[in-house]
Design brief:
0% strand, transmembrane, globular, 408 residues, mainly alpha, disordered N terminus
């Protein structure tokens, strides 16, 4: 068990008046409340970005493609790539790593075995992800989080600087690999060449009965697996950055880092946006498909910068007079983020597959994105109602119960 800090342990053993002994506990409770609010608010913020990306897979093979015709569709796809894609899942991954340190401290305070809790939590998360991928959304991220969670557990004792260096190495290696692959593709591919995707089978399956939807999910899951494995270093790097930030208690003591956060926004936001624009130009035009690999390499470096700038900007805004109410709304959604994440997939499956209205491939990107904002607004309202009446969401309750090995 990790040794407590001297400033905390000393107070616990010294005979002092009750009022003085209680004062540090009040301060700690207040700091913990702010920390939890910031973590949850960032999660609630990330939910919208994740939905805007995931819906393009769920809505059909033609959504967001340049060939879809209308200028509005192409502009919408371009903006999502530049501003959203790969940014918000990294923010979620950062928070996963940060929360890992909170869970470790919670286990330490309660005298519970952290290894057992972690094993049960990750196995439960993997099972939830498996059901999610098979039944609802083949682009599930929970199984990847669960697998990489074991790497995070193995590195739990690493110094923050070591974790940051490891994250940088992972990003550089992945970026160089993708850049080399992208340059090779550009050099060896003729202009205008590209493999035409056979989407007829997927369209028929997703518009069919529930059994055909499951079959389509399994097939698409296998097709996405290679990409998931390739981008694991990207997610692990975000995990490690979150782990380092958690050890430094960055969100618990964010006021100490306000100056740094402002500089991150001032310099990181334009740099990340430039990288996002380059990525969108490679993926969505005007550059042709040969540039896609180069755009992916640029995105490896630009997406984390923009994700951090988004997060810092939001935390600064939440500390303004007008941002306090927004913080409460976002934090409520973040407290039940796992329930909201799975509910998003359920709603999309009911709308676009044979589970419900079977609109797969029949709706353009602009109305689809508009529907995402409506869905998120509904989730914000429902989350606020839910946290006023219950300690956690239904899926969070299952995860907490399995993690602790008892009902909570």
């Amino acid at each position: 068990m990790r040794t407590q800090r001297s400033d905390r342990g000393g107070r616990g053993r010294t005979a002092v008046p009750v009022r003085e002994a209680g004062a540090p506990l009040v301060a700690a409770t207040s700091a913990q409340a702010r920390r939890i609010r910031d973590v949850d608010a960032l999660r609630g913020f990330a939910l919208l970005g994740i939905l805007l990306v995931n819906v393009q897979t769920m809505a059909g093979p033609y959504v967001g493609q340049e060939a879809s015709g209308a200028v509005g569709e192409r502009v919408a796809a371009w903006l999502v790539t530049a501003l959203v894609s790969s940014k918000f899942y990294l923010l979620f991954a950062f928070l996963f790593g940060y929360s890992f340190t909170l869970q470790a401290r919670s286990a330490e305070r309660e005298g519970a075995g952290f290894a057992g809790r972690t094993l049960r939590r990750l196995l439960c998360l993997w099972c939830l992800g498996l059901a999610h991928a098979v039944l609802l959304f083949p682009g599930d991220i929970l199984m990847t989080y669960a697998v990489l969670g074991f790497v995070l557990f193995a590195m739990r004792g690493a110094a923050p600087l070591v974790a940051v260096r490891a994250a940088v190495v992972l990003l550089v290696c992945l970026g160089v690999l993708l850049l080399g692959k992208g340059v090779l593709t550009y050099v060896t591919t003729a202009p205008g060449a590209g493999a035409a995707a056979d989407t007829a089978g997927a369209v028929a399956d997703y518009r069919g009965d529930p059994a055909s939807v499951v079959h389509a999910n399994l097939r698409q899951w296998r097709e996405l697996l290679a990409g998931d494995l390739l981008y694991m270093p990207h997610i692990l790097a975000a995990f490690l950055m979150g782990l380092a930030a958690g050890e430094r208690r960055v969100l618990a003591e964010f006021d100490r880092y306000r100056g740094l956060a402002r500089r991150v926004v001032v310099y990181g936001l334009p740099a990340g946006l430039i990288g996002g624009v380059v990525t969108a130009m490679c993926h969505n035009g005007p550059l042709d498909a040969r540039w896609s690999g180069v755009g992916a390499a640029v995105g490896v470096f630009a997406a984390p910068v923009l994700a951090v700038a988004y997060g810092c900007g939001l935390l600064l805004l939440l500390r303004t007079r007008h941002g306090r109410r927004t913080a409460e709304v976002l934090a409520a959604a973040g407290r039940v983020a796992l329930t909201n994440y799975l509910t998003q997939s359920l709603v999309m499956a009911l709308v676009f597959t044979g589970y419900g209205f079977a609109l797969y491939g029949r709706v353009g990107l602009v109305p689809v994105l508009a529907g995402c904002f409506v869905l998120c607004a509904g989730q914000l309202a429902l989350s606020a109602w839910l946290v006023r009446r219950f300690r956690c969401g239904p899926v969070e309750w299952v995860l907490h119960t399995v993690t602790r090995g008892r009902r909570t």
